[in-house]
């Protein structure tokens, strides 16, 4: 199939982009990497009046450090997170996260902001941003506002943005010391995850946990933090002995989405296995060399 007819606008600045969004409202769709929008257009699942191509707004393609935070422009291509020296030094967790996204051509085209704004519940970046306590800078006619990642994702493919607003920057606090793990189960390498888990644990001077985030993805209508498991980790500490208990608590009240790919019960089993493995990855990292990352994994079989 081919898209329904639409007007095409290619602004070269953020101001022009916001003016266009204000003029067209719900009838406009932003085009960045096109990895999600183009299939929807071709299948006529969305039929906007105008496509706003923001690829010429090069001011939104950057990474930089701002005090105790790393800032990533919304138009930064995903592959850059694998190679950027600043990301590697201050947020190495993002490197194994990005390696799980599709295949290299997808990561070269897809943008950080595009993945986050699309908000697919099985995508890796939204879950990772929740685990990293990121905030998103949103620009609109009334100015800019900062939205925590936990509040940004409000439902299936739905975020806290008005039609005349645009995600322009991701701000991620840089932990002093942290260990992590990310695991997902996909039927084929590069497919969307049927279930996944991201775990980030902040460490104090004596390697005790000072903060923990455990986030499930691919199992609900949005990335799902599990406070009960986080509290258990904080109470008992990070250890291999706790991995199975943490996994059990993480899914004890989980009502998984079911579809043609997996039943609710199967997804729940996968989520439990992925939490356990992500926790064990964080434990291994702490034992080997706290604060230094290692590659993530995509599993072929659940434990």
From TrEMBL:
InterPro entries for the chain: CO_DH_flav_C, CO_DH_flav_C_dom_sf, Diverse_Substr_Oxidored, FAD-bd_PCMH, FAD-bd_PCMH-like_sf, FAD-bd_PCMH_sub1, FAD-bd_PCMH_sub2, Mopterin_DH_FAD-bd
PROSITE patterns for the chain: FAD_PCMH
Keywords: FAD, Flavoprotein, Oxidoreductase
Cell membrane recorded as keyword: no
The organism's place on the tree of life at top rank: Bacteria
Pfam families reported in the protein's UniProt record: CO_deh_flav_C, FAD_binding_5
GO MF annotations, alphabetized: FAD binding; oxidoreductase activity
Lipoprotein recorded as keyword: no
Annotated ranges, domain FAD-binding PCMH-type: 1-177
Protein's UniProt name: FAD-binding PCMH-type domain-containing protein
